[in-house]
TrEMBL record:
Protein name: Threonine aldolase
Residues of the Aromatic amino acid beta-eliminating lyase/threonine aldolase domain: 54-287
SUPFAM superfamilies reported in the protein's UniProt record: PLP-dependent transferases
Family from the record: Belongs to the threonine aldolase family.
UniProt cofactor(s): pyridoxal 5'-phosphate
Organism: Streptomyces daqingensis
Amino acid sequence: MTDTDRDRRGRQLDAWGGATRLLAPAPGGERIGERLARLAEQGAQAYDLDGWTDQYGNEDGIVGELERRTAAALGTEAAAFFPTGTMAQQVALRCWAGRTGNGAVALHPLSHPLVWERDALQILAGLRPVRPTSEPRLPTAAEVRALDEPFGTLMLELPLREAGFTLPTWDELTAVVEAAREREAVVHFDGARLWESVTHFGRPLSAVASLADTVYVSFYKSLGGLSGAALAGPATVIEEAAAWRHRYGGQPFQQWPAALAALAGLDVELPRLPEYVRHAATVAGALYEAFAGSDLPWWRVWPRTPHTHQFQVWLPYEADELTEAGVRQAEETGTVLFRRWSRPFGAPPGTAMTEVTVARPGLSWSAEDVRAAVAEFLGFRAAAAASPS
């Protein structure tokens, strides 16, 4: 990172961190002292702080308590805490390859292991991805049945982030799981954001998780933890996964800060997620109305009605220009509507996308507040284009 990049990032964090109106907290948008103070306050409600810190995730400590609570929430026999979701999923898919005798994993080309993990699935785990569809949605039952080669595991990312945090219907999900079973494959859910998916399905979390043989969940995304993830499923599989976790170097000496933050997230954020999902529909609808009433030649709010509390917004401008407009809006008005924009791989020049999250701060925004913020943002965009920073 160059000095210019550091200065730019510092300016962005200062602008977003000093804002008074925002739709969701910025990831990593707190100063160290602020985060420690919040962890101490929320952690005291989630776990006995007079207890001892853990060592290597011992079962009778805070990590063990997090694993038990996670398994109970998902309705599985057991769960194992991992420092990262990348590690948890590689281990899960490796375990299933050994048990099924087939190292082929059917997964979407937009799924996390194929987009964000530097080919670790192939290089470290020795597994081979097969792609049941290239459509920007999860595969259908017909596509799974039509795969022209056997596979040991079907991995479904719920929701599929790169396609706009999209989910199938409940009937579609159960059908695709059934199709995998017909192919004598096991099913693994990439549930990094499974917590907020239950509103769309209209089913309890345990009912959704029960469709899969194993489930990975994240603690730092929607639950606001520091880091970490869990792999949940049958006790024998989780025991094997714990052995691989050790081999992968995933058992640090002390993990209690991450575990404490995760427990606080289960207490504080998990019960609020359905409300966030419902209000995201209001925000997305207001964004659509605001863009429709502007002079923009093209835009996209996707999905039109969000499946979770996150969705995409696309605009016909360069990403740096839009990010600069958002920073200026935060600096001059204290309002954060959008943060970083990017041009995803394959998108044409002159287009950019940002991900919108609606969380607790966004619940106070009315549709009119959103429309006003859009008009303001577009004004800053014009100014940024005329005199770039």
